[in-house]
Amino acid sequence: MAPLTESKKRKAVTKDVESDTHAVSGEEFRFDSSGSESSDEESEIELIDDFSDESEDESIDSNLVSKGELPVHTRNGKPGESGDVVVQDSEDEDEETVNYRITKDANGNDRYIYDEINPDDNSDLSEVDEEANTIGNIPTSFYDAYPHIGYNINGKKIMRPAKGEALDALLDTIEIPKGWTGLTDPDTGKPLQLSQDELKLLSKLQMNEVTQDGYDPYQPTVEYFTSKEEIMPLSAAPEPKRRFVPSKHEAKRVMKIVKAIREGRILPYKPPAEEDESQDSIQTFDLWANETPRDDHPMHIPAPKLPPPGYEESYHPPPEYLPDEKERREWEKQDPEDREKSFLPRDYGSLRKVPGFEAFVKEKFERCLDLYLAPRVRRNKLNIDPESLLPKLPSPEELKPFPTTCSALFRGHKGRVRSVAVDPTGLWLASGGDDGTVRVWELLTGRQLWSVQLNDEGPVNVVRWRPGKDAVVLSAATGDAVHLIIPDILSPELESASLDVVDAGWGYSSTASKNSQNSEQKGSKVQWARPLPSLAENGVYATIPLGYVVKSISWHRRGDYFVTVCPASATPASLAIAIHTLSKHSTQYPFRKRLKGGGPPQVAHFHPAKPILYVANQRVIRSYDLTRQSLLKILQPGARWISSFDIHPTSSVTSGDNLIVGSYDRRLLWHDVDLSDRPYKALRYHTKAIRAVKYHPRYPLFIDSSDDGLLQIFHGSVTGDLMSNANIVPLKVLRGHKVVGDLGVLDVDWHPREAWCVSAGADGTCRLWM
C-alpha cells in the first residue's frame, strides 16, 4: 500500500482504556470532506487509538501514525486509490458498539458527532470540553490566514471571534423585529413573539421578584390558630373581690396627686375664654328688630286619599265584573263626561300582558286640578277621654255606713255552721250547724244564751226568725221536719205572747166550719204535731213533718205564713214546695205538677208588699200571683245553677221590682223585673261558688258570700223613676273565714236596723261585721 503523500502527521492521542475495548475502530477517525477534493487545503486528522491490554500493569506507548502507514481501502473493500477511508472492523462485528451519530449540517452534508469519552479513575482528564481548542503547541499565528483559529474535539472549526468594529457593523445591518426573542415556537416552528407584559414577567422571574402588582411581601401574619397556650379555669365565674390585692405603689402615686390637689399645685382644667370676635369699628344693624309679628302660616291640609281599587280595576277580575258586548257598546256611545267609569274592565292572562294606561297622564292632571281648585276643610276628630266613657261611681267614703271590720266572733258549734239569722229586735243571733244544735247568741257580746239539740244524726240546715216584734218564734229545719221554737231567754210578757201565737192553731180545727174544715183537709196532707217531751222541755212547741229534707225557709212579712222548699231530686213535684199557716197549723202544696224547665226548685220567697210568690229552679225564676193562682213572669238569669236569691225590700210603689241572684257558677246577677227578664247587670268578683245573697232591710246595701271565704259588700240604690237604672257600686271585701273542705261562707244575714252583717262559715264560727 502506497503511503499518502503531502499529508501532515498528527500525534495520536492515547488513553488507558479497559481491557474489553476493541483495538482500532474505523469510526473513530474523522476526515474533513474538503481534504479529499483539494490537495492544497490541509487536513488534520486526530487519531485516537484505543488499545486494550490483558493486564492492568502494562502500558502501551502511542506512536505517531501517518496516513501512509494506514491501510487504504476502496469502497469495494480492496486497497486502492485515495478516497473514503474505511477501517475494517474487528472479527466480531455484531458485538461492536457505535459511539457516534450522524446528523446533517447546514449544507446538507453528513455530520458525525461522537459521544463523550468517559475516562477512568486513573485518567488525568476529569471533564471534556467540547469547545476547547485542540491544536496543541501550534501557535495561533499559523492560522492568521484562515477564518478559523483551530479545531474542537469533534474536529469542527473554531471560528475567529468578531472584533468590535465588525460586530457593531454587523449589528447595525441587522434590523431586530419588535418582540424578537430568538426563540422558536415548538408548535408552529415560527419565531416566538412575546408581548411587553410577558417580557416584564420573564424579567421579574429572572430577578426573583414577585410577578403580581401591588403584592406586599411584608404583610402581617394572620394566626388562624393562636400560638399562645391558654389555661382555661375550672369556673367561668369572675374573680371575687376578696382576691384583689391593691397596689401599694399606685396608692402612693394617688396620694401624691391628692396632696398636690389639696395644696393647690394641681389646678382643674379651665377652658380658654372665648375672645370676642366682634369689632367695635364694624357697626351692625338688626333688620328684623322692628318687624311686626305675623300669624303662623296656615295649617297644611293633606289631600284626601283616593279610594282603594276594586275588583273591576284588577287585571284578572271576576267574570261578573266583565262587561258584555251590549254594555261595551253603550259605554262607547256615552260622552266621556257622562261615563260612570273612565275605563272598561278587561281580563288578561298575566300581569306582564297588561298594556299601559292611555289616560294615565290626563287622569293625574285632573287629579291635580281637583286638589288645586277644590276647597278643603279640616275636620277635627273627636278627642274623647276613655275615662269619660266609664260610669262615674261615687267614692265608697261617700256611701258609708257599711261593714268594714269583724267585731265579734261566735264559737261553739262542732263542724260547719250552715245558717244564721238575726231576730227582728236585733238583740239575738240564731245559728244552726252540722252538730244538730240550734244556738242563740247575744249579738253584741258574742255570748251564748241558749241551745237545743234537735237532731243527733243530721245537721240543722236552716234557721229563720218570725218577722214582727209582738212575738218571738224561731223556725229551724233539720232532717225532714220543721220545728217552731220559743227560746227560754224572753221576758215573761214576750214569752206569753209568743206562746199564744203558736198555740192559736191547735184549736182551729174544732172551731172552724165543716166546709172550711173539709177544704182544709183536702188541701193539707201534713198534720202538725207536738214535739217529743225532750224537745218540749227545751222550748220546742210544734213540729211539722214533711217527709223530705228541707233546705229553705222564708217567712211572709206579716209573720203568719212561711214557705219551705225540699230541693232533693227524689222529692215528688207536688211535695217540693209547701206553704204553712201558723195561725191555723195548716200546710198546703200549691203545685200539683213539676215545674216545666229549669230543674227541681231551690229557693222560694214571698214578695214584700204584694201577694206574689217567687220560686227559683236551677236555671229560671218564676213569679206567681197567689190570689189569681196564675203565672206572672219567668226570669232567665242565665246561670247554670241558682243557689239563692233575694227581693229588694223597699216599701215604695216599685217595691219588689228588683232581685239579686247568686249562682254556683260564681256570678252575681241583678234583675230589674220591669225592664227585662234578662239580668240588668252581671257581677263576677268571686273565684268559687256563691252560697247566699241578702238585701239590707233599710240601707241601700246588699251582700254575697262565697266558698272562697270572702264576703262582698255592694251599694245598690233603687229610685222610683222608671227612666233611671239602679246604681251598683262595689264597696268592701270582708276576709276572715277559713276555707274548710272547699267550703267557705255558707250563709249571711243583715241587722234589721244597723249596717251590720253576720256570716256563718264552714270553719265552725260565726262573725259579726260592723
List the helices and strands and how they pair.
Blueprint (H helix, E strand, L loop, with lengths): L12 E2 L33 E2 L50 E5 L5 E5 L33 E4 L5 E3 L4 H10 L6 E5 L6 E3 L2 H11 L41 H16 L61 H9 L26 H14 L12 H4 L16 E6 L5 E6 L5 E6 L3 E6 L5 E6 L6 E6 L8 E5 L2 E5 L6 H12 L4 H4 L2 H10 L9 H4 L3 E6 L6 E4 L5 E5 L11 E5 L4 E3 L14 E4 L5 E5 L4 E5 L4 E6 L6 E6 L10 E6 L4 E5 L8 E3 L6 E6 L5 E6 L3 E8 L9 E9 L9 E6 L6 E5 L3 E5 L1
> Can you give the helix content as a percent range?
10-25%
Number of helices: 10
Low-confidence stretches: 1-95, 121-125, 512-524
Strand order of the largest sheet: 9-36-35-34
Distance between the termini: 170 Å
Look at the structure and give the mean pLDDT. Answer: 79
Shape: elongated
DSSP strand count: 36
| Sheet with most strands | 4 strands, antiparallel
Radius of gyration: 69 Å
What would you say the CATH architecture of the domain at 403-510 and 525-769 is? 7 Propeller
The top-level CATH class of the domain at 403-510 and 525-769 is: Mainly Beta
CATH topology of the domain at 403-510 and 525-769: Methylamine Dehydrogenase, Chain H
| CATH homologous superfamily caption of the domain at 403-510 and 525-769 | YVTN repeat-like/Quinoprotein amine dehydrogenase
Going by helix content, strand content and strand pairing, the class is alpha+beta
Proportion of β residues?
Answer: 15-25%
Biased composition (Basic and acidic residues): 13-31, 323-344
Subcellular location: Nucleus, Nucleolus; Nucleus, Nucleoplasm
GO molecular function: ribonucleoprotein complex binding
Protein name: Ribosome biogenesis protein ERB1
